[in-house]
Amino acid sequence: MKINMPVTQREIELADDDLIVSRTDLKGQIVYVNPDFIRISGFTEDELIGQSHNIVRHPDMPVEAFEDLWRDLQKGRPWSGMVKNRCKNGDHYWVEAHATPMIENGKVTGYMSARRKVSAAKVKEAEAAYALFRSGKAGALRIINGRVRSSGIGARLASGLKDLSLATRAAMAATLVLVVILGLGSWYVRDRAGQALEGQGLAVVSDKVSLVKAMVASKAQSLKLETERLNDMFAAGFGDGFSVNAVGEGMPVLSHGGVALNLRSQEVDRFTASSGAVATLFARKGDDFYRVATSLKKENGERAVGTMLAHDHPAYAKLMAGERYVGKALLFGIDTYTGYSPIKDAAGKVIGATFVGRRFSDELAALKQQIKSVRFGDSGYAYALDSTPGKSFGTLTVHPAKEGQNIADAKDADGRLFIREILERKQGVIHYPWLNTELNDTVPREKVVVFEAFPEWNWVIAGGTYMDEFESVSRSIGFMLLSMALVAALVLALLIFVLMRSLVARPLQAMVQTAQNVANGNYANVIDAGRNDEVGRVLQALESMQVKLCADIVEQKRVSDENSRIRQALDCVETNVRIAEPGGRVIYANTALLKTIRAIESEIRKDAPGFSADSFVGSSIGRLYADPDAALKRLAALTQTTRTQMSIGGRTFDVVTSPIVNASGERLGSVGEWRDRTDELAAEKEVQALVGAAAEGDLAARLVVEGKEGFFRDLSIGLNHLMEGMAGNLEDIARVLNAIARGDLTEKITADYGGTFGQLKDDTNTTVERLREVVGQIKEASESINVAAQEISAGNADLSSRTEEQASSLEETASSMEQLNATVKQNADNARQAKELAGSSNEVAEQGGA
């Protein structure tokens, strides 16, 4: 039986509404577990599916319980019983398990089990009973149909009665009522005689077994003393003075009196020649004992040197403790009594060991012959079984006919491994039905075996005989007395049988067929529920159950159709959606999410090696996070809708996660919506860069259109068109202003623009036209002023000349000069004003860009 460890002996108490459900295939491998199973056991679904159901088996459960379970299931019948299961962390929980075969089209396709909470009183009762089985003290107790019962005759009869039809049992009951009075006396006589004979017989068998054990013990003691004597004699041949050199990588060297004994055969061969016993010297190195010299030879004639004494050898621990070991062994196929004694140095440290082996095959053969001669009754005999763990476990070491055969897996007529039970219990009495085909038996006969252990040789000595040898006389007496009562009851029994078969058995048989039809999903059965007796009430209840189940199926179909509609609707939406169990296992992902996952599958594998989009549904959602455990803890603690951002596979998602709960607030799982914002975030960055460049005066930047789809492509095209329009308009305005700055008032904006850009075009062209008109007017005014100034300048020159020529007449013309000076002053003012006007014209021209 598989031993699951560790165990903590901490009990997990189930809630009243906990229901643990699982299904297995015909080999017992798990194919389905419900959430309660996962939550309570602590295993994940991935750890359970495909595993043998014994993954939750607790070491405290006796193997007999599971043998009984599988025995019933393989017979096609349900099983119920108390089970102690182990959690992943070593805790445990008690349940009342109900297992049943799953039948489809008349064939068993697997097994289903449902387990519920059990009361503390039942747990205490089961613990006490199972402890008896684990300790080998169950005696006649057996686990049958999930219940601990006695294996006595009464229990077997009760079990057999349960398999009979109601009509048969009713007839038998009526017969017993009539027979009981007459039968009491005969039964009492038979019972007393049977008990006396059985007790006497068992006492004889027990005495014989004790006798055989005493014979074996006597021989073992004799051999032990002889072996110890030989071992002392072999060691005495050396005396003190042993030393060992264990330096280096090779074998240690054992020396005596300065002489290396490794591979020397003189001493060991001399001892063998004088005593007839083989001898070996061991040298110790570290925790190992090496055979350095021996007279023991293998089957091929080579000496058995250079090997180490196995650490699991019973002598090893004794030698390490500085003690002697003596015991029976099989050396190269020869029965040998062996003795090991430690070799110690002057400081008392064990540095090696001496070994002697006394072959006692002939003596053992004589002992076996003595045991075989022990007989009791007509067919009783003694035998011995090897209880040494391993291949020899269950081998008949002594038997009148089957000596040397391994019968560990022998089963009685009921399929019970009674030999294993004997070997495990080691001492006691066992009863079992035995069908001896070698004696041409056609029916099983009950056998009784008394057995005792002889630990020194790992033997279980047993003696057995058929119970009928004890009961034959009492059975004859009882038969004669009971036959009279049986004859009187036959007629009444037959009548009752017919009535019960007609009134009860046949309706119940029809009821069984109806129940099987209902179990297979057929709810169209016609049930005659017109009777009002007990059978009728059962039929009425069956009819009610059929109607209720039919209504439940209709409701389940409605819910299933509703779920299908929801699933199909989710598969059609473009939003990425997934649904997970409370433990984080993904149970659904819509088409959009699976498409997204497949698109970035190779990128996800960089962070989660082995990830597969095909296995995403059914895997843990935690695999997509850097810290899966922390992510699952956050998911488990989720109580309301939460928005987060997640980056996987080079993509950025806004994730909206919401818990899913039922009407009673029980957590059923979670739903997550993933919105891919990767393109949106990239577009935001591009737009920010574009706007920033425009703010800096760079109107040449453009958004990349290639690789974009939908809204982001339209946005990029629109912004690029806007930038192109702005750049063209501003370039035209800059060109015209540049021309105005150079004094060129002939440039205009000729390109077509709409809206505000069109208004800018018209205003710019109008400004150029107006500047051209103003500059023309200024030019004409300037030319007129220049002509007037030239005329004034010429008049002044002429006046000056005449003044020089007519100096003599200055006095005469003084008054005229004053008038002339006033005129000149006025002309100078006019020239200054003309100059200022020309300067103002230049400023206007500069401001207009002329």
Report on the architecture of this protein.
This protein is an alpha+beta fold and 850 residues long. The chain has six domains: 143 residues, 2-Layer Sandwich (Beta-Lactamase); 133 residues, PAS domain (Beta-Lactamase), CATH 3.30.450; 133 residues, Beta-Lactamase; 104 residues, PAS domain (Beta-Lactamase); 60 residues; 93 residues. It has 19 helices and 26 strands. The strands form six sheets. Strands 16, 17, 18, 19, 20 and 21 form a six-stranded antiparallel beta sheet that branches. A five-stranded antiparallel beta sheet has the order 2-1-5-4-3. α11 packs across α12, α16 packs parallel to α17 and α17 runs parallel beside α18. The chain is elongated, with a radius of gyration of 56 Å.
List the helices and strands and how they pair.
Elements: E1 20-24, E2 30-33, H1 35-41, H2 45-48, H3 63-74, E3 79-86, E4 92-104, E5 107-116, H4 120-134, E6 141-144, E7 147-150, H5 153-162, H6 166-236, E8 242-245, E9 253-256, E10 259-260, H7 266-275, E11 278-285, E12 288-294, H8 314-320, E13 325-331, E14 334-344, E15 350-359, H9 361-372, E16 375-376, E17 380-386, E18 396-398, H10 418-425, E19 428-434, E20 445-454, E21 459-466, H11 468-519, H12 534-572, E22 576-580, E23 586-589, H13 591-599, H14 601-607, H15 628-636, E24 642-648, E25 651-661, E26 667-676, H16 678-695, H17 710-741, H18 755-805, H19 814-847
Antiparallel strand pairs: 1-2, 1-5, 3-4, 4-5, 6-7, 8-9, 9-10, 11-12, 11-15, 13-14, 14-15, 16-17, 17-18, 17-21, 19-20, 20-21, 22-23, 22-26, 24-25, 25-26
Helix pairs in contact: 6-11, 11-12, 16-17, 17-18, 18-19
